[in-house]
C-alpha cells in the first residue's frame, strides 16, 4: 500500500493542485459507478456467493451437513403420512418451485469451485453425475422461471410464452433439467457435502427429487423395485424368512439371548445384527466375530432375532419415504416395548439410521458402532490381542461410518493394537475416502455406466500391495469382495487377498 501510494504521488504531484482537485471527485464517481455496475451484475453471476455464503453456512442444518437424511416436508412442515393429502401436500420435488428456501439458498451460494465434483465417486468413474452441475442446472432453471415464480396470479397471464414453456419442462426426465442417470448415480456417500466450502447440501436435493420420482411418478431403476417389495413383505432386502435371522447363533459355542418380550435386566446392549449381518454369508462372519468378542469381554448382550426388521435405510435413500416410515415405526415400537436403551450395530447404515434418523420419529437410543465398543474394550483391558497377525492391511473407510458420523480413529486404533499388523493408508482415506458404491440403495441397482465404483476402489487398494483389505461395514465387505474376486480371476490380485472386517482381525489375535 505504501509503495503504491508513493508511486501514485510521483505521477500526480507534477500535475498540480488544480488537476488533482478535478481527478479526486472523478475517481470517486468512477469507483461508485463500478460498485453500482457490480451490484447489478453480481445478482446474475456466481459472485452472488459473496453475499449468500455466510447465510448458507449460518443456516446449515448440521455442522457438517451429514448424518440424518432430512425428513419429507410439505408447506414447511414435516409430512405426517397418516394425515397427508395427495391433492394438497407436496411429495418430494417434482418442480423447481417445490424446492425449500434452503435449497434455493444452496443454488445461489455455489462458487463453482468444483471441489464436490473432484471427490464424487460417480463422476470419477465416468458417470454423468456432477454434484456441481446438479446445483447449477437447477439454479439456471430457477433463474429462467423466476418471472413466473415471483409474479402474482394476475401478472402470470401476461408472461412471455418462452417463460411459460419452461414450466412444462420436467425437473427430472430424459429432456428434463436433471437426467435420470444423474439422479440414480448417487451413492449418498457425502463426499460432495464434506468438501463444499459453503455448506451446500447436495444429498438433500437428490433425495427430494428421488422421493417425487419414486412415490409420485413410480420412475426408478426396475431392479430396485424387487428390493422395495422384499422390504414390504419380508422386512429385509433379500426377501428371506425372518426365521433365518437367528440361524448364525447355531454356529457359536455359547448361548445368545434372544429377546422374547423384554430385555433381561442384566443385559447391557441390544446387538442390532442388521439384514446383511444376519442373512449374507460374508457379513455373518463379522456378526459371529463381534458376538464372540463381546462374550469374551463379558459384555451382556441380546438380539431381537425374528423380531428385527430392516431399519428402512435402503427405502429412504432410494426415495420411498413412506416405506421407511412404516419400517422405522415398527422397529421403534419393538424396541420401546422391549425397553431397549443401548444398541450396538455392525452396519454403519443401521447405525446411522438408529442413531440419527429414528429420533425424528420418536425413537431415541444410545447407539454405538461395534468398532467404537471394541476399541473401548481393548483400552479397558477386557480384550487383549496376543496372537500376532503378520499381515499388511489397508483400511477402507465406510462412508456412513466415516463422513456421516466421523468415526475414523477407532477402527485404526483396534488394528494398531493387534501384534504384527502393518497398516498402509490408501491415498484417498478418512474424510476423503472413496465410496465402495453400495450406498444410496445402489447395493440393489445395476451399475451400467462407466467403471464400477467398487472396482475403482479395489484398484486403489491394490496399489498398497496388501495381504488383507479391512473395513467395518457389511455392504463394503460385499462390494469390495466382489471386486477382489474379479481381480483374482483376471490375475490382477493374489489369490490370498481377501476383505475382512476389523472385528475379524481382532478375534484372530484375541483367541
TrEMBL record:
Superkingdom of the source?
Bacteria
Q: Which GO terms describe its molecular function?
A: 4 iron, 4 sulfur cluster binding; metal ion binding; oxidoreductase activity
Q: Which key words tag this protein in UniProt?
A: 4Fe-4S, Iron, Iron-sulfur, Metal-binding, Oxidoreductase
Keyword Ribosomal protein in the entry? The reply is no
* UniProt domain 4Fe-4S ferredoxin-type: residue ranges: 101-128, 176-206
Database matches in SUPFAM superfamilies: alpha-helical ferredoxin (SSF46548)
Q: Which GO terms describe its cellular component?
A: plasma membrane
Name it. Answer: Fe-S oxidoreductase
Species for this entry: Thermocatellispora tengchongensis
Amino acid at each position: 500500500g505504501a509503495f503504491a501510494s508513493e508511486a501514485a504521488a510521483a505521477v500526480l504531484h507534477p500535475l498540480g493542485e488544480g488537476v488533482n482537485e478535478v481527478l479526486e471527485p472523478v475517481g470517486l464517481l468512477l469507483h461508485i459507478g463500478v460498485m453500482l455496475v457490480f451490484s447489478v451484475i453480481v445478482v446474475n453471476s456466481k459472485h452472488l456467493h459473496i453475499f449468500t455464503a455466510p447465510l448458507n453456512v449460518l443456516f446449515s442444518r448440521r455442522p457438517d451437513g451429514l448424518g440424518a437424511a432430512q425428513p419429507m416436508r410439505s408447506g414447511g412442515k414435516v409430512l405426517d403420512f397418516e394425515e397427508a393429502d395427495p391433492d394438497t401436500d407436496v411429495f418430494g420435488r417434482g418442480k423447481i418451485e417445490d424446492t425449500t428456501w434452503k435449497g434455493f439458498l444452496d443454488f445461489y451460494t455455489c462458487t463453482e469451485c468444483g471441489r464436490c465434483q473432484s471427490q464424487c465417486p460417480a463422476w470419477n468413474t465416468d458417470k454423468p453425475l456432477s454434484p456441481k452441475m446438479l446445483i447449477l442446472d437447477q439454479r439456471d432453471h430457477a433463474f429462467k422461471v423466476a418471472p413466473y415464480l415471483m409474479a402474482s396470479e394476475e401478472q402470470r397471464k401476461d408472461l412471455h410464452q418462452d417463460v411459460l414453456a419452461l414450466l412444462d419442462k420436467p425437473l427430472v426426465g430424459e429432456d428434463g433439467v436433471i437426467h435420470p442417470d444423474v439422479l440414480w448415480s448417487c451413492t449418498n456417500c457425502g463426499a460432495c457435502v464434506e468438501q463444499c466450502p459453503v455448506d451446500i447440501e447436495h444429498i438433500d436435493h437428490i433425495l427430494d427429487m428421488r422421493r417425487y420420482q419414486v412415490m409420485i411418478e413410480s420412475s426408478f431403476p426396475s431392479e430396485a423395485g424387487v428390493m422395495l417389495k422384499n422390504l414390504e413383505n419380508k422386512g429385509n432386502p433379500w426377501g428371506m424368512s425372518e426365521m433365518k435371522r437367528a440361524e448364525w447363533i447355531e454356529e457359536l459355542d455359547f448361548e445368545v439371548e434372544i429377546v422374547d418380550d423384554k430385555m433381561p435386566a442384566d443385559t447391557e446392549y441390544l446387538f442390532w445384527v442388521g439384514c446383511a449381518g444376519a442373512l449374507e454369508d460374508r457379513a455373518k462372519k463379522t456378526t459371529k466375530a463381534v458376538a464372540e468378542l463381546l462374550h469374551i469381554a463379558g459384555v451382556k448382550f441380546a438380539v431381537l432375532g425374528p423380531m428385527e426388521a430392516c431399519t428402512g435405510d435402503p427405502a429412504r435413500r432410494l426415495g420411498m419415504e413412506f416405506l421407511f416410515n412404516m419400517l422405522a415405526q415398527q422397529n421403534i415400537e419393538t424396541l420401546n416395548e422391549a425397553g431397549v436403551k443401548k444398541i450396538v450395530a455392525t452396519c454403519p447404515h443401521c447405525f446411522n439410521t438408529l442413531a440419527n434418523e429414528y429420533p425424528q420419529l420418536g425413537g431415541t437410543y444410545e447407539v454405538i458402532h461395534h468398532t467404537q465398543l471394541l476399541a473401548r474394550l481393548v483400552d479397558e483391558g477386557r480384550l487383549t490381542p496376543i496372537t500376532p497377525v503378520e499381515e499388511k492391511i489397508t483400511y477402507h473407510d465406510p462412508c456412513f461410518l466415516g463422513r456421516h458420523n466421523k468415526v475414523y480413529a477407532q477402527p485404526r486404533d483396534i488394528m494398531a493394537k493387534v501384534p504384527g499388523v502393518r497398516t498402509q493408508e490408501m491415498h484417498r482415506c478418512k474424510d476423503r475416502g472413496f465410496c465402495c458404491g453400495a450406498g444410496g440403495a445402489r447395493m440393489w441397482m445395476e451399475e451400467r455406466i462407466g467403471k464400477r465404483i467398487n472396482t475403482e476402489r479395489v484398484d486403489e487398494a491394490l496399489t498398497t500391495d496388501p495381504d488383507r483389505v479391512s473395513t467395518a461395514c457389511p455392504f463394503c465387505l460385499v462390494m469390495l469382495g466382489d471386486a477382489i474376486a474379479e481381480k483374482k480371476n483376471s490375475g490382477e490380485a493374489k489369490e490370498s487377498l481377501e476383505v475382512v472386517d476389523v472385528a475379524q482381525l481382532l478375534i484372530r489375535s484375541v483367541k
